[in-house]
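Structure catalogue
Derive tokens from sequence
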Amino acid sequence: MNTEKIRNFCIIAHIDHGKSTLADRMMEMTGTVEKREMKQQLLDSMELEREKGITIKLAPVQMHYKGYELNLIDTPGHVDFSYEVSRSLQAVETAVLVVDATQGIQAQTLANVYLAIEQDLFIIPVINKVDLPAADVEKVEQQIINLLGCKKEDIIGVSAKTGLNVEKVLDAIVEKAPAPKLASTPSTRALIFDSYFDDYRGVVLYVRIFDGKIEKNANIRMMAAKTNGIALEVGTLTPKMNSKSELTEGEIGYIVTNLKTTREAKVGDTVTLQKSPAETPLPGYKNVLPFVYAGFFPVSNEDYKTLKDAIEKLSLSDSALQLEPENSPVLGFGLRIGFLGLLHMDIIRERLEREFNLDLVVTNPSTNYQVTMNNGEELEIKSAADLPDQTEVLEIREPWVKGEIIVPKDMIGNVLNLIVEKRGHQTNLSYIEDRAVIDFEAPMANLLTDFYDQLKSTTSGYASFNYELSDYRAEDLVRVDFLVAGQKVDALAIMCHRSEAESIGREVTKKLKEVIPRQSFEVALQAAIGARIIARETIGAYRKDVTVKIHTGDRDRKAKLLNKQKRGKARMKRFGKVDIPSEAFTVMLKRDE
């Protein structure tokens, strides 16, 4: 097709502002999907996506409108998948920015706008949900004008649910949006903006052709991964797969390959032809590294192989997942898995429980730390249990994040207090109409467990939050161990700042006292840094009244029986084992309740 008649665009917005619903109406109005096949959030194919109302995996679709070919990419809105969003933005020339008329500009809206401006995209501003009684269109219009510097007449007010004014958005894409730029090199280059593993067909790539063309059965090469493959089938999505003989310059489509895992064709890689390879890949590729780690253990050790097979199957489609075996004396065999963020971890856990019927114990999430030893050796540890003896450690560096919180002006004080509590500090404060934008820096580990919940409760749900990894900084970090009846439990060990160690130790031992059942002997729960005990709680023993059988008031006989019981309990304490329930390992997640 003539590239002048092609328009490539994506829809960007904060979570739940109506991206997928707007995509539904566009497909309906262009006749891409018949009315009888239509359902809500058609492009959200996973059960979890539909249930949570969020887009987890992006999805491309081709539509035809007034003689033009429109290629849409519906992107995820959550911070964990921001790299996927940036690759989608690189694959298009236009971004439709959707803002909810009832909520206004939120943190992820800002983050995505900055990404779009960075990629030099043409932005079409759209206000969604204008038909709702709570909609404040004028206020949101002013927010968008302040953000983008556009004119009021450039903003389109729509209702994605009813279809009001959606054709105006399609007209704006056709009339105002730029066509794909012509080739800069004679070689073939295509950007992979998503890939997934199909059980029956192998790895399927979603690509945008920048230069040249890719024909069916062509021998292809992934430039960053340095792997070769065959394009078994090429075509476009409507959203069903429509095979073609070739994908040409400016088009967005799919390539079915003979590759066995997405690690051989990662998001952001450049596809070229083996017979005439391109000299330089497309810019912007980076290897996405996880920075949230958690131990996944089956409740029954018999399910370990099932868990391992299930994770390996999921990792075929998700190249960001990293896993390694882990063994705990208490929990048995399991896996330590690396994730992009907490939502990513939550989704994987739910998929394992639903799709593979697994009962799991998930340990407290932690981040990775960079350690410099006294002898100059550099280590990277993914859990506190891996930290070497602290006398041999010269320096420990932890990841810090740059965060952005948007909150109503009258709630700034609460949010700043919360940031300080988390060892963070505010770097900037600006305003968009009646909202404040707080930029801050904080250690990643302190935001992992319950920061988002605390932020929502302290701002009555009005705050929105976005973050990105900044750098690693040397801090006075210590490993806090937890001992149950004198036995060190590695799976409970945590890394924290020395100034927070005692308060965390006290909180966690109190929580453990609630979840570990009483025994027939006294159980000591202790928190320790090295050999120094910093907190202690005691679970009292069950006590049987052994004097009940004595009918006289003889004190000597009573004392003799009580001493015998005391000796028995001391012997039991020496040999007795404490069964630690699975809730004890997630005690950090509900630390501040």
About this structure: The longest strand covers residues 393-408.
